[in-house]
Amino acid sequence: MVCSGTNLKTMNTLKIALQKSGRLSEKSIRLLLDCGIGLSNGTKSLKAKSDNFPLEILFLRDDDIPQYVAEGVAHLGIVGSNVVTEKGISLPQLLQLGFAKCRLSLAIPKEENYEGIGFFQNKKIATSYPRILKEYLQQKQIECDIEEISGSVEIATSIGLAHAVCDIVSTGSTLLQNGLKEVHSIYQSEAVLVSTPSLPAAEQVLANELLFRIKAVLAARQNKYILLNTPNKSIDPICQLLPGMKSPTILPLAQPGWSSLHSVVPENDFWPVISALKDLGAEGILVTSIEKMIA
Ligand code: PRT
Ligand code: ZN
Question: Which pTM was predicted?
């Protein structure tokens, strides 16, 4: 249910936990701002309040977010799914947010020969993610010794602490710099919006409103608005290529035999679609970002 701005003012306050400082912070705040949620006292203190939405933001270490949300201290949280899974805390996941994408991977010294997951049998593996690693290896029926360490995992092999490491990988450059090669990915992660298991009714209404806005922002980020001129004979095949939200808008041009066509194209399909459009005779193609997208 979407409620009006007037109703929102009379309601309780929704509390959301965000990472105070780190890889998730800036994009989490950006998401709220893009949802039209203003932050009156900035992001420097441990708490902030929105001046135009009944929302309080708690700034925490990412490792603490799942527990705060599970206990209802915060109603919602934005955190990497890797952290939630590793904590072993079961929380309703409302949305995948499309940022802070990374993977948890097994890596070994680059000079080692790797012929499959059996490599890890009876080996010692250093990681900050013992729960995810243990569950994964159990499924694969690999016995090994897991050495839990809290940071600088990538140096564990060079100092003789372990035969292999299991760590978060994004570009892979940290592994390379430390003489390691990524050989097996065990978990894919990204930032997620999680909720406390039983939201009170008033906060549920607010959470629904926030969710509605976040979905509109995420949909907008994943799509582009496209305008083009086309010979009338190509309208049908172009409509097949660009079905848009319902169907494209078609307006006649002053020049006979030509039309202007407006539609929406997913960001991921963008370049292949553009070359297909050119092949169909489309001209004057303009592409712009979308700010909000509501189906
Ligand atoms: O202080 P606090 O506890 O809040 O933060 P933190 O230091 O524990 O976490 P932070 O900010 O480093 O990461 C927060 C979340 O971002 C993680 O839980 C992941 O969900 C996600 N994320 C995305 C990453 C990375 N990418 C990432 N590259 N987390 C860590 N890394 C590290 C990784 O540990 C390794 O050291 O970056 C290095 C690898 O990067 P590449 O690009 O060299 O492969
Ligand atoms: Zn952390």
Answer: 0.93
